[in-house]
Amino acid sequence: xxxxxxxxxxxxxxxxxxxxxxxxxxxxxxxxxxxxxxxxxxxxxxxxxxxxxxxxxxxxxxxxxxxxxxxxxxxxxxxxxxxxxxxxxxxxxxxxxxxxxxxxxxxxxxxxxxxxxxxxxxxxxxxxxxxxxxxxxxxxxx
Length: 142
Prior knowledge:
The protein is α+β, with helices and mostly antiparallel strands. It has helices spanning 2-11, 33-50, 106-116; strands spanning 17-23, 55-64, 67-75, 120-126, 129-137.
């Protein structure tokens, strides 16, 4: 998460977003590092592209009942007029009027890769607040 954060912040440094991190130390899971990187990268890029300017993007990791959890929370720039689970489908975007670049594959890839690594991906929407949550079984014996 820290590596992706550094890469994304460098790439999108001109965007008017501020990342706030609350990252737990010593959280481990077994999985493909390319898939894991892509999952986190897609969540971060999605948050930057579709969040309201001059807002914060919150990133949190923590342990919960034998699992590690990654949360990415942001306020959408546009009203989200699609059901949360629909956003995981290929080519679906949060609102029909979006004109920003993107093909609607980011969250579908997150869902596919997360499941391939044995995890779970959940999306929550409250008003214009978007929350992506990834769960993986913890691997404490690294």
